[in-house]
Amino acid sequence: MQTALAAGETLCPSGINRATRVWITDATTVTALGDGLHGLWRRLLSGETETAIKPVRRFPVAGYRTHIAAHIEDLKQPGYRSMIHSLLDRLFSGMGPVPSDSVIITATTKAGIDNLEKLRRGVPADPNDILLDSVVDAVSQRFGLTGKGINISAACASSAIAVARGSALIAAGRAEAVLVFCVDIVTEFVFSGFSSLGALSSAPCMPFDRDRNGLSLGEGGAVLLLMSDKRAKQEGRPHLATVVGWGVANDAHHVTAPAPDGYGLIKAVRKALNRAMLDEEQVSAICAHGTGTIYNDLMEMTAFRHLFRGRNLPVYSVKGAIGHTMAASGGIEVALGAKALYEKVIPPTVGLLNPADEAIGMVSPDAAQMSGDYLLTSNSGFGGVNAAIILKRGEEASCH
Amino acid sequence: MPLITGVGWVTVSGMGRGRERNDFAMTKGRLPRIARKSVFDKPHKHFGRMDEFSKLGLAAIAFALKDAGLYEWSEKRDIGIIASTVYGCLHTDIDYFDTVMPEEGQLASPALFSYTLPNCALGEAACHFGLTGACYVINEQQPSGIASLDAAMDGIEFNEFEKALAGICDTGCPPHISLEDKGIPGSAFVVIEKGPESSLTPYGSISLNEGGDIIFNGKRIENLIGLIQECLSESPE
Lengths: 400, 237
Fold this sequence. Notes:
The structure holds two protein chains of two kinds. Helices cover 28% and strands 20% of the residues of chain A.
């Protein structure tokens, strides 16, 4: 929808209304560390993370390089439906009221791909769950949303791009509320695939460590309710954080390998800083993609060293605690980022023992105090995609 | 105001670009086999190894860029690619999982797995043509291609990238999965530019009205197929 500019508001040359701020007014997560953002934050900070990445019993793993993943132990398979519905139900129960005029943007890479596995083995299953738009339908129906929705599929940057797209719609006055809903599950399909690429670590992953040797898959989801500040104030919604900047760029280098010089990530971060009208010095910390693969982590550090020259800016990754949750990772990291800003705490990089040379002075296995108001989160993925989001501290810890 | 400067497609009826032919149509049926030589003048080292979804998307993107005079390049360009799809790479998903089943995953094909993400098809185009803008796939609740056009136009309007390719890409519903058949096989892309690089006459101007509708040359557009038909109704040259 179009909204008229109020007195004193201005449209910047890019068409974005700088006076409209994009608030995060509600957020929840479900991960292998439990349901809810508070619980996830508490376990992350208290070091209660060793139980998340564990042996997989959901499908046979004897033939693979690794046998572990950060999967949710009690995720059910309801009848012919995909496991993803069980995850969706848990996310639904963690959310407060959602305005019926919210635009829905979901982010999933493979939706209910477990149902394709069943069908190929001759086991009855609902084929509709395989399609990526099935998640949009499920969320729309659950919240009674009236508008058309979309799913964004961009590998591991899917949900960061969903946040960027939702923020752009609000900032342009074309939506007042956007529900970003991101989910992915650990299945034999994705586990075998990452194993075949030699991307899985045999032990829990060690982001930015000199001995890192791959990622640990994880599953989970996050829900973020984005709202214009005006609408949020009208409805008395809490202000968890503000999305002030976003940027998306492609490496144009290789489909499955990141650009060694960090070309796309540097460009995405610069776009986000430009959108936020911030200088590099104003960024307080970075929630990196930090998968624990040799090439991803090296590329990220190359990009961050280039962007934030001369600064040992604090960088952390949460994937050593909850695994790499694929399309959901960006959304979970934005939710945790809002919490980190509010608590003024930089979370620990779980799994880190000895920082790689390029990461020395920037990463830590321990939590630390955060100074400043702005946090950068970034994700990169197959297809050469990179996305960056900049958050500003909000005024409330949570609405629940 | 943004302009449509290029159109390219691969459909059941054939493949091509707007300045060379105007017989674009998207109908159900069997897609043509896409040979490298019918798309690229020079050898393309990965084309033969790509899945059908990637070949389909890359071919239509190549035709659209050629149509807009943006085919040749020497430095990377800030051009986004946004594509709508219904089934994405579901055919490749099936082919991949069929390599997983026999030996409990020990024969899983890494080459096929790489193409089980639909955005990798766009990534192939980004690599080949040096396109560094936002690059992602959209699955619409009501497939029309409008969401991709919308995102591409917003991206240009908000300075997220300079130019964009917006399109649709589908290889059709796999025959062995009983799904509602709601996507027409084929791929079609348009190039959207604010300040065209080439001296070619654009097809027309495109904008969003106050109600959020897409307007091309003064007419409201219902879907991407309709937009392309409108572009070709009066060939620019």
